[in-house]
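Subject: for your reference before the review

Hello V.,

The reviewers asked for a structural picture of the protein, and I figured it would be easier to keep everything in one thread rather than splitting it across files. Below is the amino acid sequence we used in the manuscript, unchanged from the supplementary table.
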Amino acid sequence: MLVKTALFRKGFRANSLTWKLNQRLITADPKERTAGWGKLIEMVNKDLSSGITKNWGSFPGETEGYCVVEGSQLDVMKMVQQYVPYIRFKSHPVASVAKLGEMLAFMV
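And here is what came back from the structure prediction:
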């Protein structure tokens, strides 16, 4: 996943998360499912407004997606806990191009 380099300011700690709805907890009733999606979108918008979540998206036709979260490991853990048990996350720290350059300099 690509993250704009402008996001990598000093001290920025980016995390790319993929998420997946817990299929066992999704109702077959369309009205209830719509209400559940509405609640999820409210929660996501709250996280976007607070600034901890920088981007959130869904993969069309799937019950999966991604988000970009800024913060420490604790910040990420606190953010994802509000979605448990309905959504499961996998977290991946993100390194800037500058950090990759530092890694390459270390190798020689």
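For the response letter, the relevant points are probably these. The beta strands are 14-21, 53-58, 64-70, 87-93. Residues 30-50 form the longest helix (21 residues).

Happy to draft the paragraph if you're swamped.

O.
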